[in-house]
From TrEMBL:
One of its GO terms (cellular component) is cytosol. PANTHER family: CYTOSOL NON-SPECIFIC DIPEPTIDASE. Belongs to the peptidase M20C family. This is Cytosol non-specific dipeptidase. Signal peptide: none annotated.
Length: 487
């Protein structure tokens, strides 16, 4: 299976990707991949450092004839988003990713692939190992904890890096050069509630919402994909308003930066409303499927009779939380007035967990405008505080302000046109990139971001284009040859 991946061109890159994907590397649990990377650097006889945050820096001297060029920082993050389909049996903490080839795509069997940002990591590893590629002095920076708060970038201290140019290999369209990104903030909602005895003469149902595409809550937020938490809440709210539905438990979504694909709820309805509830539920499910038929053709919604739960939520809290979830912004909130087609501000209702007297809701709010980011986060806080919840803001990180006069941008634009006989799209993205954070301690560093084509990042549909990786590799090799002379 993974042996087939190793035969792909460029073999040096794909072999490093296969080596990397054999190592478990969830965010916050990067010990194994840090050790793997430190061992890799040491095996090459290169200066290798692990800093206090867990980032790994590997330095490689310039090749012959390139010593007068500016030092380049090649940067990617080691951690990956761990998501799997509900019917996939897989332990991310102990197993390596199982990869398959499907036409021009490499994907994983029922899990995220880790191309975000493993292809970038593998590219840097291949450059470090190569004895043939011409390049200036390189500082390879492998950061940790990017996907759950960018802890590695925040933890990198000033004066550690000496490079003047940073190439961030972490974007997902091979015809784009990124010069800016959105900042973000986590909105964490919680409250306790009393559980009540299940009423008599009721029928219990397990409501299932699944089959949604999911995806990256920044890069894919404008695509109109369904959010399983919002779909579920709409079903529950309707059942409560019309038939007095009572909620026992909800388990929807997962990671803060992934659009929720699935949600499950256990509820009860009075027997007297059994037939009417079933009819109304099916009607509403059909309506939702029609609304989303273009973007979500595989959406599956059902209500199955199940055994009675032990308890249900207290009525007042249920009413308040379903109303708050209904009113809470999800998806694109505003488009940029300065850059055509760029999402300025958005929110992802990423996680809803209600069980045994505890409510936990997590959102990731993004914006390329700091004040707009905080405004939307505050509106979410207001909605949930009205429902009696406690709201905490954590993990705030800055955006990356575009610099259209960037010298390295001119190099990449020129080299792209020379190699591919077309113009690259110079863009800012709505995802969070580490450039904005790294720029706080390295404000004079000239930064750019680019990468191969990756689809479905942060979901089990994640896949990377083989031909695009070949293009990306060729581009990277030529960029390294074209780094300007030091001043």
């Amino acid at each position: 299976m993974n042996s087939n991946i190793r035969q792909l061109e460029p073999t040096q890159l794909w072999n490093k990707f296969a080596d990397l994907n054999a190592v478990p590397r969830p965010s916050k649990k990067e010990e194994k991949v840090i050790a793997f990377m430190v061992n890799f650097g040491n095996s090459l006889g290169l200066e290798t450092i692990e800093d206090e945050a867990g980032n790994v820096i590997i330095r490689k001297p310039a090749t012959k004839g390139m010593k007068n060029r500016k030092t380049v920082v090649l940067q990617s993050h080691l951690d990956m988003v761990h998501q799997k389909n509900a019917d996939t049996v897989f332990d991310f903490n102990s197993q390596g990713i199982e990869m398959i080839i499907d036409g021009d795509w490499v994907k994983a069997k029922g899990t995220t692939l880790g191309a975000d940002n493993g292809i970038g990591v593998a590219t840097i590893m291949a450059v470090l190992e190569s004895k043939e590629i011409e390049h200036p002095a390189i500082e390879a920076l492998f950061t940790v904890d990017e996907e759950t708060g960018m802890g590695g970038a925040f933890g990198l201290k000033e004066n550690v890096l000496k490079g003047e140019i940073l190439l961030n290999l972490d974007t997902e369209e091979d015809d784009e050069i990124d010069i800016g990104c959105a900042g973000g903030i986590d909105v964490n909602i919680s409250r306790r509630y009393n559980e009540e005895k299940v009423p008599e003469n009721v029928t219990a149902y397990k409501i299932i919402v699944k089959g949604l595409q999911g995806g990256h809550s920044g890069m894919d937020i404008h695509r109109g994909f369904g959010n399983a938490n919002k779909v579920m809440n709409r079903l529950l709210f309707d059942g409560f308003e019309n038939f007095g539905l009572r909620i026992s438990a909800i388990d929807g979504g997962g990671l803060r930066n992934a659009i929720p694909r699935e949600s499950f709820a256990t509820i009860v309805v009075d027997n007297i409303h059994h037939d009417a509830f079933a009819f109304e539920f099916n009607q509403l499910a059909s309506t939702i499927k029609k609304e989303l038929k273009t973007t979500e053709p595989n959406l599956f919604i059902t209500a199955e009779v199940t055994k009675l739960p032990n308890r249900v939520m207290e009525l007042g809290v249920q009413e308040g939380i379903t109303k708050a979830l209904y009113t809470a912004q999800n998806g694109v909130y505003a488009m940029s007035a300065d850059m055509e087609g760029l999402v300025e501000t958005s929110n992802n209702i990423a996680r809803v967990k209600i069980k045994e007297g505890k409510i936990e809701i997590k959102c990731l709010t993004r914006s390329s405008v700091e004040s707009a980011k905080m405004d939307l986060a505050t509106s979410l806080r207001a909605a949930f505080e009205l429902a009696g919840c406690e709201v905490e803001f954590t993990g705030s990180y800055p955006g990356w302000t575009p610099n259209v006069e960037s010298p390295i941008l001119k190099v990449l634009v020129s080299k792209y046109e020379e190699l591919f006989h077309s113009q690259a799209n110079v863009v800012a993205c709505h995802a969070g990139l580490e450039c904005g954070i790294l720029g706080q301690n390295y404000p004079k560093m000239d930064m750019i971001s680019y990468g191969p084509t990756i689809k479905g990042a942060h979901s089990p549909d994640e896949r990377v284009s083989i031909s695009s990786v070949q293009k990306f590799w060729k581009y990277t090799v030529e960029i390294l040859k074209s780094i300007p002379n030091a001043d």
